[in-house]
């Protein structure tokens, strides 16, 4: 139902509120970009098909079809896992952390950032299972009462990896779903089609917007946010321990947890910037995702990027400062070995275009922001690859040095996971309110109140 | 605006949620029960065999030692199934015309071994070695049960990993004098209080270290 427009001082702002809800809920009700959406969706489905084919090939033949072997026994599967999981982090950071910090500008970004988190975590979570070889035993990672009388090795980061990803997935789903309920109800009330009414009505769980509903909702939302906030830091810290806990030069470093968390936020902000610029362009949402939002995203990207660069510098510094022979050798291999392209690719793609964000004009301009986001996404991919491969391919024993080259099926699987990400994301864009209308209105109202008091 | 859902929609939604929750819980419990059921572990399930060989008669009744037929048990990984010649040491003299023994005579005539169906089976990724267990005094009955009371052969113990580990993590109570390893009835031995320390002493004497016995590569290589 549309808001009653009452005469008087508040009339115009009430109209404006109704218009915001209308603008957002109108997108799933009568989708404006049908043709382009179908083209994008067909493309995404093709990628998804590639994923299924590649996964079946791996399941059928085992991980031998990949290029991994001793000494590099973690290849694209693990580096992509970290890459995807890292991308997810920005969504939680924007949604949960900024919610509890009362940063209201987040309200225009949180919904699609959370959706991005969710689908990125799904992509990430698939990789360890695909990497198992005997994937049908994946549940062995869970501590459940079994007839083998053994438990997972709780001293191993790999066990905690399982818990971290699962917790992250569950909390992300809950947080995202709780957040979308009021908007589902708004969409339900505005659509005329029976099928849509039932669909949105079912998932709105009977939301009527009563004061009690809102009070309960606030409690649930803030509580879930409070649970999600530690995950921003803990999940990728834990992932970094997969490396840092091993006695491998180039991995065994205390800087890894913060280095990984910041890198994760960095890559995530890059992808959020890309999604934000595309969505506001495609659906004319410039009035909701304003230049100010792009500006703030640009600043976040710049800040997290500079903090990530600290990780690079400290790694090099501490290696040279320690002077440990093999550490220095690993550094040399990184900077000038077979995989130097991944190191310099990471440095250049991550930090060179990033410097443009010092300028306000660039930050508020969607196209450069998109391109910088893309560059950072590629750069962070190179970083994950570099960290993994360069530390392994020339280990302590010279006799067991060897190279790693990803096989066709590794690349195709990676391309396929883009489909695993894009298909649900496009469905989300198509069928759900992709921006949180009521939270935008809340922010707007508080801004107006503040203006009135002043 | 008309109502989208009927008044009972909430109840139905709750019922579905409840059924789902009960289904997940019940499914988990079913799988748990299934894994420990005798249908999975095969305890007490008789296998079809070409000849209805009775351990009850041959072991319990006649008192033939296990090693008379399972000749390799002390020296190799497998206990060994008897070749037809071993059956024929007696059955060339007694019950020579018994219809039940027709496959045995056929086997001897055609020089093709009898195809017994395995009862005590460990998975192919488990490297179980009979000889070390026998030589350290783990009696046959410990794993195969009272075969002298089985008219037809069946599995007596669940060959689950937890069952293997129970012994590997605490072997002392399961050890017996190696020279009596084929003895099936140990009630008198167990009743004797002097024997309580036997296992512990043997663990020491043989240098058995339980903390190494549950390493993965003891059984999975």
Automatic annotation (TrEMBL), chain A:
This is Polysulfide reductase NrfD. It is found in: Cell membrane. Keywords: Cell membrane, Membrane, Transmembrane, Transmembrane helix. The chain crosses the membrane at residues 37-61, 81-100, 112-142, 162-186, 220-244, 256-279, 300-321, 341-359, 371-393, 413-432. PANTHER family: POLYSULPHIDE REDUCTASE NRFD (PTHR43044:SF2), PTHR43044. Belongs to the NrfD family. InterPro entries: NrfD-like. Its main location: membrane. It is a multi-pass membrane protein. The keyword Zinc does not apply. The gene is nrfD.
UniProtKB/TrEMBL annotation, chain B:
It comes from the Bacteria. Keywords: Membrane, Transmembrane, Transmembrane helix. The chain crosses the membrane at residues 15-35. This is Cytochrome c family protein. It comes from Microvirga puerhi. InterPro entries: Multihaem_cyt_sf (IPR036280). Signal peptide: none annotated.
